[in-house]
Amino acid sequence: MKVAVIIPAAGASRRFGGRTKKIFEWIKDRPVFIRSIELFVNRDDVAGVQLVAAAEDMEMLKTRFAANLGFMGVKLTPGGAERTDSVRNALASLPPEADFVCVHDAVRPCVSSLWIDAVFAAAQKTGAAILAYPVHGTLKKVDRNDRITETIERAGLWEAQTPQVFARDLLERAYERASGPATDDAALVEALGETVTVVRGDPRNVKITTRSDLALAEAVVDSLPKPKRARPTGPFDEAQW
User: Which of 29, 73, 81, 127 is in Cβ range 3.0-4.6 Å of 167 for a Cys bridge?
Assistant: First the structure.
Protein backbone atom coordinates (compact mmCIF):
# COMPACT_ATOMS: atom_id res chain seq x y z
CA MET A 1 0.00 0.00 0.00
CA LYS A 2 1.40 3.37 -1.06
CA VAL A 3 -0.56 6.45 -0.06
CA ALA A 4 -0.39 9.96 -1.50
CA VAL A 5 -1.36 12.51 1.14
CA ILE A 6 -3.19 15.73 0.24
CA ILE A 7 -3.39 18.42 2.92
CA PRO A 8 -5.81 21.22 1.94
CA ALA A 9 -4.72 24.51 3.52
CA ALA A 10 -6.18 27.13 1.17
CA GLY A 11 -9.07 28.30 3.34
CA ALA A 12 -9.60 31.96 4.13
CA SER A 13 -9.93 31.47 7.93
CA ARG A 14 -12.88 33.88 8.06
CA ARG A 15 -14.44 32.32 11.17
CA PHE A 16 -11.09 32.23 12.96
CA GLY A 17 -10.63 36.00 12.89
CA GLY A 18 -7.50 38.00 13.55
CA ARG A 19 -4.65 38.92 11.22
CA THR A 20 -3.00 35.48 11.11
CA LYS A 21 -4.55 32.53 9.31
CA LYS A 22 -5.22 29.56 11.54
CA ILE A 23 -2.77 27.31 9.68
CA PHE A 24 0.04 29.67 10.74
CA GLU A 25 -0.96 29.85 14.41
CA TRP A 26 1.34 27.97 16.76
CA ILE A 27 0.54 25.05 19.01
CA LYS A 28 3.30 25.15 21.57
CA ASP A 29 6.55 24.89 19.59
CA ARG A 30 5.42 24.86 15.93
CA PRO A 31 2.67 25.97 13.55
CA VAL A 32 -0.59 24.09 13.11
CA PHE A 33 0.05 23.09 9.50
CA ILE A 34 3.55 21.78 10.27
CA ARG A 35 2.11 19.54 12.98
CA SER A 36 -0.44 18.19 10.48
CA ILE A 37 2.23 17.49 7.86
CA GLU A 38 4.43 15.73 10.43
CA LEU A 39 1.73 13.12 10.95
CA PHE A 40 2.58 11.59 7.57
CA VAL A 41 6.06 12.44 6.29
CA ASN A 42 7.96 9.67 8.09
CA ARG A 43 5.54 6.84 7.34
CA ASP A 44 6.88 4.03 5.15
CA ASP A 45 3.49 3.70 3.44
CA VAL A 46 3.33 7.36 2.33
CA ALA A 47 4.51 8.02 -1.22
CA GLY A 48 4.38 11.81 -0.97
CA VAL A 49 2.71 14.77 0.72
CA GLN A 50 1.15 17.77 -1.03
CA LEU A 51 0.27 20.95 0.85
CA VAL A 52 -2.43 22.79 -1.08
CA ALA A 53 -2.18 26.49 -0.27
CA ALA A 54 -3.84 29.76 -1.21
CA ALA A 55 -2.03 31.99 -3.72
CA GLU A 56 -1.52 34.73 -1.12
CA ASP A 57 0.31 32.28 1.20
CA MET A 58 2.71 30.84 -1.35
CA GLU A 59 5.43 33.45 -0.91
CA MET A 60 5.62 32.98 2.87
CA LEU A 61 5.58 29.19 2.52
CA LYS A 62 8.42 29.34 -0.02
CA THR A 63 10.54 31.64 2.12
CA ARG A 64 9.86 31.42 5.83
CA PHE A 65 9.00 27.70 5.77
CA ALA A 66 11.09 26.61 2.78
CA ALA A 67 13.71 24.73 4.80
CA ASN A 68 11.19 22.61 6.68
CA LEU A 69 9.00 21.83 3.68
CA GLY A 70 12.05 21.00 1.61
CA PHE A 71 13.55 18.72 4.25
CA MET A 72 10.24 16.88 4.61
CA GLY A 73 9.85 16.58 0.85
CA VAL A 74 6.49 18.37 0.80
CA LYS A 75 5.19 19.51 -2.56
CA LEU A 76 3.38 22.86 -2.69
CA THR A 77 0.27 22.93 -4.88
CA PRO A 78 -1.89 26.00 -5.59
CA GLY A 79 -5.37 25.89 -4.12
CA GLY A 80 -8.71 26.80 -5.65
CA ALA A 81 -11.81 28.79 -4.77
CA GLU A 82 -13.43 25.83 -2.96
CA ARG A 83 -12.02 22.90 -1.05
CA THR A 84 -13.01 20.56 -3.86
CA ASP A 85 -11.05 22.71 -6.33
CA SER A 86 -7.97 22.46 -4.12
CA VAL A 87 -8.14 18.68 -3.83
CA ARG A 88 -8.78 18.37 -7.56
CA ASN A 89 -5.61 20.38 -8.24
CA ALA A 90 -3.62 17.98 -6.07
CA LEU A 91 -5.16 14.90 -7.70
CA ALA A 92 -3.72 16.07 -11.01
CA SER A 93 -0.15 15.61 -9.75
CA LEU A 94 -0.14 12.49 -7.59
CA PRO A 95 3.01 10.36 -7.47
CA PRO A 96 2.60 7.49 -9.94
CA GLU A 97 3.31 4.78 -7.37
CA ALA A 98 0.41 5.83 -5.12
CA ASP A 99 -2.55 3.46 -5.19
CA PHE A 100 -4.43 5.18 -2.35
CA VAL A 101 -5.08 8.85 -1.55
CA CYS A 102 -5.42 10.31 1.93
CA VAL A 103 -6.98 13.74 2.39
CA HIS A 104 -6.34 15.38 5.76
CA ASP A 105 -7.28 18.87 6.92
CA ALA A 106 -4.29 21.12 7.63
CA VAL A 107 -6.15 22.34 10.71
CA ARG A 108 -6.44 18.90 12.35
CA PRO A 109 -3.04 18.60 14.05
CA CYS A 110 -4.13 16.32 16.92
CA VAL A 111 -4.15 12.85 15.39
CA SER A 112 -2.48 9.78 16.85
CA SER A 113 -0.41 7.62 14.51
CA LEU A 114 -2.51 4.72 15.83
CA TRP A 115 -5.66 6.28 14.36
CA ILE A 116 -3.89 6.82 11.05
CA ASP A 117 -2.78 3.17 11.07
CA ALA A 118 -6.40 2.11 11.63
CA VAL A 119 -7.94 4.19 8.86
CA PHE A 120 -5.19 3.24 6.39
CA ALA A 121 -5.78 -0.45 7.14
CA ALA A 122 -9.55 -0.09 6.74
CA ALA A 123 -9.17 1.70 3.42
CA GLN A 124 -6.82 -0.99 2.13
CA LYS A 125 -9.43 -3.59 3.03
CA THR A 126 -12.58 -1.81 1.81
CA GLY A 127 -11.40 0.84 -0.66
CA ALA A 128 -12.75 3.82 1.29
CA ALA A 129 -12.54 4.71 4.98
CA ILE A 130 -12.70 7.79 7.17
CA LEU A 131 -12.18 8.65 10.80
CA ALA A 132 -15.42 9.69 12.49
CA TYR A 133 -16.89 9.93 15.96
CA PRO A 134 -20.45 9.20 17.12
CA VAL A 135 -22.53 12.20 18.13
CA HIS A 136 -23.19 12.16 21.88
CA GLY A 137 -25.07 15.40 22.54
CA THR A 138 -28.71 16.24 21.91
CA LEU A 139 -29.10 17.81 18.48
CA LYS A 140 -31.48 20.71 17.85
CA LYS A 141 -32.48 22.19 14.51
CA VAL A 142 -32.78 25.97 14.84
CA ASP A 143 -34.32 28.59 12.55
CA ARG A 144 -32.92 31.99 11.57
CA ASN A 145 -34.38 33.53 14.71
CA ASP A 146 -32.50 31.09 16.96
CA ARG A 147 -35.66 29.17 17.81
CA ILE A 148 -35.69 25.39 18.05
CA THR A 149 -37.76 23.80 15.31
CA GLU A 150 -36.88 20.16 15.82
CA THR A 151 -34.98 17.75 18.04
CA ILE A 152 -33.05 15.34 15.84
CA GLU A 153 -32.63 11.70 16.74
CA ARG A 154 -28.89 11.14 17.21
CA ALA A 155 -28.85 7.34 16.85
CA GLY A 156 -26.57 6.43 13.98
CA LEU A 157 -25.19 9.96 13.58
CA TRP A 158 -21.41 10.35 13.41
CA GLU A 159 -19.30 13.47 12.93
CA ALA A 160 -16.89 13.03 10.03
CA GLN A 161 -13.20 13.70 10.68
CA THR A 162 -10.02 13.35 8.68
CA PRO A 163 -7.90 11.54 7.56
CA GLN A 164 -10.16 10.20 4.82
CA VAL A 165 -8.53 7.53 2.66
CA PHE A 166 -9.66 6.13 -0.70
CA ALA A 167 -8.44 3.89 -3.47
CA ARG A 168 -6.90 6.26 -5.99
CA ASP A 169 -9.13 5.34 -8.92
CA LEU A 170 -12.23 5.67 -6.76
CA LEU A 171 -11.43 9.19 -5.57
CA GLU A 172 -10.38 10.28 -9.06
CA ARG A 173 -13.68 8.99 -10.43
CA ALA A 174 -15.60 10.80 -7.68
CA TYR A 175 -13.92 14.08 -8.59
CA GLU A 176 -14.49 13.57 -12.30
CA ARG A 177 -18.24 13.31 -11.64
CA ALA A 178 -18.46 16.00 -8.94
CA SER A 179 -20.79 18.79 -9.99
CA GLY A 180 -20.25 21.20 -7.11
CA PRO A 181 -18.49 21.80 -3.79
CA ALA A 182 -18.62 19.30 -0.92
CA THR A 183 -17.61 19.64 2.71
CA ASP A 184 -15.66 16.40 2.64
CA ASP A 185 -14.37 13.87 0.13
CA ALA A 186 -16.45 10.99 1.45
CA ALA A 187 -19.60 12.79 0.29
CA LEU A 188 -18.35 12.73 -3.30
CA VAL A 189 -17.56 9.02 -3.08
CA GLU A 190 -20.97 8.36 -1.52
CA ALA A 191 -22.57 10.19 -4.47
CA LEU A 192 -21.18 7.45 -6.73
CA GLY A 193 -23.16 4.90 -4.75
CA GLU A 194 -19.99 3.51 -3.19
CA THR A 195 -19.70 2.43 0.43
CA VAL A 196 -17.43 4.31 2.83
CA THR A 197 -16.32 2.60 6.03
CA VAL A 198 -16.23 4.51 9.31
CA VAL A 199 -13.31 4.01 11.67
CA ARG A 200 -13.99 5.23 15.18
CA GLY A 201 -11.94 8.33 15.87
CA ASP A 202 -11.62 10.43 18.98
CA PRO A 203 -13.00 13.79 20.17
CA ARG A 204 -9.42 14.98 20.60
CA ASN A 205 -9.11 15.07 16.80
CA VAL A 206 -9.96 18.76 16.90
CA LYS A 207 -10.63 20.75 13.74
CA ILE A 208 -9.42 24.28 14.40
CA THR A 209 -12.13 26.67 13.24
CA THR A 210 -12.21 29.28 16.03
CA ARG A 211 -9.67 30.52 18.57
CA SER A 212 -11.26 28.39 21.27
CA ASP A 213 -10.49 25.33 19.12
CA LEU A 214 -6.84 26.38 19.09
CA ALA A 215 -6.80 26.47 22.88
CA LEU A 216 -8.40 23.02 22.99
CA ALA A 217 -5.81 21.63 20.58
CA GLU A 218 -3.01 23.00 22.75
CA ALA A 219 -4.58 21.29 25.75
CA VAL A 220 -4.95 17.83 24.17
CA VAL A 221 -1.99 17.51 21.79
CA ASP A 222 0.29 15.90 24.36
CA SER A 223 -2.42 13.46 25.53
CA LEU A 224 -2.76 11.53 22.26
CA PRO A 225 -2.19 7.77 22.43
CA LYS A 226 1.20 6.68 21.15
CA PRO A 227 2.50 3.39 19.81
CA LYS A 228 4.82 1.40 22.05
CA ARG A 229 7.69 2.63 19.93
CA ALA A 230 6.96 6.19 18.85
CA ARG A 231 7.45 7.24 15.25
CA PRO A 232 9.94 10.08 14.75
CA THR A 233 8.30 13.38 13.93
CA GLY A 234 9.46 15.72 11.20
CA PRO A 235 12.12 18.30 11.95
CA PHE A 236 11.17 21.76 13.07
CA ASP A 237 13.95 24.11 14.14
CA GLU A 238 12.41 27.06 15.96
CA ALA A 239 15.70 28.93 15.70
CA GLN A 240 15.13 29.34 11.96
CA TRP A 241 12.41 31.88 12.57
Answer: 127
